[in-house]
């Protein structure tokens, strides 16, 4: 039997699983599960405004980081 | 009948005639009006849509300036600089009720120039704020929080709490990786086992081995890193611990399996590697999860200490920082404020709440020339006093320092499993070594001998041993939680089972702590609502006791409003209604008003006078809680010595001790005395449980092996306590003892199961009869036995 088929399928499925795992790890590190209330509320209420606000805040932070040179 | 409408900001309902009208809106106070308009101006009006109709606390007027947040001493203590050079502070936000509050605070702060990040945790109201200090000052940020109707306190986050959170998070990450990899390895292992029995081509087997190799590598070196670190520190202190057994076992198995994979013959054991690490890691995680952080207790205290006090300098009242107050300064204290310095009263008089120090709820009357102690609270006294010690040397600071050291030096009774695992680990490692030597000298090839030695380590996998204690304590925790007993730390269950001395506080623990009416005498007919209205407005515990009693007697009672109303500190109340004088208070008040009284009693008495005639007398007493004598008796049966420590006088303490049947008691104890006594017990080798509820008990609570706090006790006592009794009854204390004994028994059973299991399987492994499938099944089976046994106990208790 062509064993490369098994190798390829194993490789592909482990890769896909690993991708999901890394997304999960990123979310934990990012503090998305730190506050369960907020995490659930975000899923319920967050809309376009919140997304825009978050993007603006991110931009503001980056701008400040570029400008800010503490002595 | 008046109708009420809600305030447009806080949604609390009021009579419209009392409210501020603002076009179509109604506000209950200027604070709410201010916040409402501010939110409109800044474009945060959707706050009201989010908060719906949930009520908020109306914003309070904060007189203390925010400038102290910019002081150097504040920055040194609380503000950190992060790796990018921005400032960072941790705050506790007060006044958060709903998720809309969190939203509003975050949004308002994020809109400010220079604020980089504002993150508020809804569950514990703790906030982290990062900002650029040259653009915006911290005081401006605090002003913003206050402007929208909340308040903030700084706290030191770089303490244990931070550490615990970080540790927990790192465990989440490690477990996610370990569980993911183990689950996938098990799928692959199914193919391996099937192949073992029905035959499998070597090249397919190698592919499966390589896939397992890839998956188990992060498990061993990332998730399993804690074991290598633990083993290293153990070896450094010349201790063979369980970490060493896990680390060497997993590492040798891993190396051997790589060798098998490359040589392309034999059986690889990558599944065992990842399973050992995952199981033991879960056991470890359960332990970390049930550890409490001591830091919270200190937060509660420091949060209640204001930054500034009012002092008189050159004839003017001025705000002054705590550290700048010198000995000899005159400090101004108004009613309701906390006293932060030790001193002597130079002007004014009134009653003080000294329950923080003595545990007694009855107020103490003090006048010019008498000394005041820091940590006590003025109830109705407006006084000036001269500080006789600065803040660093005050009784209050002293207690905080003592508490800090007591929390950090809390005795830890070593857990049984830890002690056992040291012996177990060295035994298994030496058995494995002996097996290897035996097989090699028999003689066999190096490969075979090594393989057999490895199989000894795998089969003796301490999975069951690692799970034995955490699973048992989890069962104990859930049983006790369902009965209103909260153990804050799993290890507390095991410690509690080894206790031989129980130390009790009097007020609030043995007694209810609030005086209750035990007898009433009527001399004249009167309308009960007069007396009720009289005592209702006072905050004095005696008046509260009478008010509660009348309320219980007559279910529905109306209140009247007196034309005149005056309280006399430590004496009573005088009021006027429709030209009749009313007096309510103690004997002293009556004598001062020239009323003759012949009635005498042993208990505390409350006299009610209409005009100049006695109408009624109420006798009050601090009652003993239900079931107290029975509890003491059952403790004696369990051979637990019971000791009573009270801050109260000799007579009262002796009476109470006699009434409940305690032989050993100490009276007039200061908080330091109580802690000292517990330390003496420790020196005698006793293991001590302390139960208490007041601030005056916290030092003793922090020193005891197990501290039991009453759910209704002071915040600090609840924070310091290892066990919290939610229903305040000591009957649950008895239950807590029972549960801890059962749990400890369960731990012993579980340990025995895993040891017997090993004793049976290790000889088989040493003889070389272990095949991979058997190793894997046996590993899971021992863990299942331990978990199953724990579930059995849980089921038994549930019924």
Word description of this protein:
The complex is a heterodimer of chains A (71) and B (799). Chain A is mainly α. Chain A has 2 domains: 1-32; 35-71. Chain A contains 3 helices and no strands. The longest helix of chain A is centred in the first third of the chain and has 27 residues, at 3-29. The radius of gyration of chain A is 20 Å and the shape is elongated. Chain B has 799 residues and is of the alpha+beta class. Chain B folds into 6 domains: 5-51, Ribosomal Protein L24e, Chain: T; 67-158, 2-Layer Sandwich (Alpha-Beta Plaits), CATH 3.30.70; 160-289; 300-408, Calcium-transporting ATPase, cytoplasmic transduction domain A, CATH 2.70.150; 490-511 and 625-741, Rossmann fold (3-Layer(aba) Sandwich), CATH 3.40.50; 512-623, Calcium-transporting ATPase, cytoplasmic domain N (3-Layer(aba) Sandwich). In chain B, the strands form 7 sheets. In chain B, strands 19-31-30-29-20-27-28 form a 7-stranded mixed beta sheet, with helices on both faces. In chain B, strands 11-10-12-18-13-16 form a 6-stranded antiparallel beta sheet, with no helix packed on it. In chain B, strand 1 and strand 2 (13-14) form a beta hairpin. Chains A and B meet through helix 1, helix 2 and helix 3 of A and helix 4, strand 7, helix 6 and helix 7 of B.
């Amino acid at each position: 039997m062509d064993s490369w088929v098994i190798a390829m399928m194993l490789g592909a499925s482990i890769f896909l699983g690993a991708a999901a795992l890394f997304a999960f790890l990123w979310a934990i590190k990012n503090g998305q599960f730190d506050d369960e209330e907020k995490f659930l509320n975000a899923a319920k209420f967050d809309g376009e405004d919140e997304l825009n606000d978050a993007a603006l805040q991110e931009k503001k932070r980056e701008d400040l980081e570029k400008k800010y040179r503490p002595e | 009948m008046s109708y009420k409408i809600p305030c447009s900001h806080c949604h609390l309902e009021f009579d419209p005639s009392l409210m501020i009208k603002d076009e179509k809106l109604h506000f209950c106070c200027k604070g709410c009006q201010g916040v409402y308009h501010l939110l409109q101006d800044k474009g945060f009006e959707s706050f009201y849509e989010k908060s719906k109709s949930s009520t908020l606390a109306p914003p309070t007027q904060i007189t203390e300036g925010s400038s102290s947040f910019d002081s150097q001493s504040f920055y040194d203590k609380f503000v950190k600089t992060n790796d990018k050079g921005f400032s960072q502070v941790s705050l506790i936000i007060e006044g958060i009720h709903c998720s809309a509050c969190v939203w509003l605070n975050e949004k308002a702060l994020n809109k400010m120039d220079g604020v980089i990040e504002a993150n508020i945790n809804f569950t514990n109201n703790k906030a982290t704020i990062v900002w650029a200090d040259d653009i915006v000052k911290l005081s401006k940020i605090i002003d913003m929080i206050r402007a929208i109707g909340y308040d903030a306190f700084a706290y030191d986050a770089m303490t244990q709490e931070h550490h615990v959170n970080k540790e927990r998070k790192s465990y989440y990450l490690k477990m996610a990786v370990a569980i993911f990899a183990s689950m996938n390895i098990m799928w692959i292992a199914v193919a391996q086992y099937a192949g073992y029995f029905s035959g499998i081509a070597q090249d397919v087997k190698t592919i499966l081995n390589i896939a397992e190799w890839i998956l188990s590598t992060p498990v061993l070196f990332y998730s399993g890193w804690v074991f290598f670190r633990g083993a290293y520190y153990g070896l450094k202190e010349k201790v063979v611990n369980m970490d060493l057994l896990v680390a060497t076992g997993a590492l040798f198995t891993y190396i051997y399996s790589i060798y098998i994979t490359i040589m392309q013959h034999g059986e690889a054991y990558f599944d065992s590697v990842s399973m050992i690490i995952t199981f033991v890691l879960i056991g470890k995680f359960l332990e970390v999860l049930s550890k409490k952080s001591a830091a919270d207790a200190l937060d509660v205290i420091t949060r209640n200490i204001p930054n500034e006090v009012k002092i008189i300098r050159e004839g003017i009242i001025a705000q002054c920082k705590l550290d700048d107050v010198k000995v000899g300064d005159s400090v101004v204290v108004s009613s309701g404020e906390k006293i932060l310095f030790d001193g002597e009263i130079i002007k004014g008089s009134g009653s003080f709440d000294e329950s923080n120090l003595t545990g007694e709820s009855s107020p103490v009357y003090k006048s010019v020339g008498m000394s005041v102690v820091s940590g006590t609270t003025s109830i109705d006294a407006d006084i000036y006093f001269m500080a006789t010690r600065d803040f660093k040397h005050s009784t209050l600071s002293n207690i905080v320092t003592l508490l800090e050291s007591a929390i950090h030096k809390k005795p830890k009774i070593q857990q049984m499993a830890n002690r056992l695992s040291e012996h177990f680990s060295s035994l298994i490692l030496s058995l494995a070594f002996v097996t290897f030597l035996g097989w090699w000298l028999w003689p066999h090839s190096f490969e075979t001998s090594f393989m057999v030695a490895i199989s000894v380590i795998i089969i003796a996998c301490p999975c069951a041993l690692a799970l034995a204690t955490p699973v048992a304590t989890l069962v104990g925790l859930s049983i006790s939680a369902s009965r209103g007993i909260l153990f804050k730390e799993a290890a507390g269950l095991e410690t509690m089972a080894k206790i031989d001395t129980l130390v009790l506080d009097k007020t609030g623990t043995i007694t209810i702590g609030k005086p209750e009416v035990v007898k009433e005498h009527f001399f004249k007919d009167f309308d009960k609502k007069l007396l009720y209205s009289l005592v209702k407005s006072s905050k004095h515990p005696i008046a509260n006791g009478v008010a509660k009693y009348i309320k219980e007697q007559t279910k529905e009672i109306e209140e009247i409003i007196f034309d005149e109303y005056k309280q006399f500190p430590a004496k009573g109340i005088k009021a006027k209604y429709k030209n009749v004088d009313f007096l309510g208070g103690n004997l002293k008040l009556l004598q001062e008003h020239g009323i003759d009284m012949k009635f005498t009693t042993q208990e505390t008495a409350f006299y009610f006078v209409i005009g100049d005639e006695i109408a009624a007398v109420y006798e009050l007493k601090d009652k003993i809680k239900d079931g107290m004598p029975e509890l003491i008796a059952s403790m004696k049966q369990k051979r637990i010595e019971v000791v009573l420590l009270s801050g109260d006088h000799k007579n009262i303490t002796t009476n109470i001790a006699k009434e409940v049947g305690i032989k050993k008691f100490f009276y007039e104890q200061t908080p330091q005395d109580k802690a000292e006594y517990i330390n003496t017990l420790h020196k005698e080798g006793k293991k001590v449980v302390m139960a208490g509820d007041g601030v005056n008990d916290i030092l003793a609570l922090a020193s005891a092996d197990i501290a039991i706090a009453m759910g209704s006790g002071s915040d600090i006592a609840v924070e310091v306590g290892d066990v919290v009794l939610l229903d305040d009854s000591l009957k649950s204390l008895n239950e807590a003892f029972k549960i801890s004994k059962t749990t400890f028994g369960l731990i012993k059973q579980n340990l025995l199961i895993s040891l017997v299991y090993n004793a049976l399987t290790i000889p088989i492994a040493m003889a070389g009869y272990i095949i991979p499938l058997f190793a894997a099944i046996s590993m899971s089976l021992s863990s299942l036995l331990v978990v199953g046994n724990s579930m059995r106990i849980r089921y038994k208790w549930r019924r």
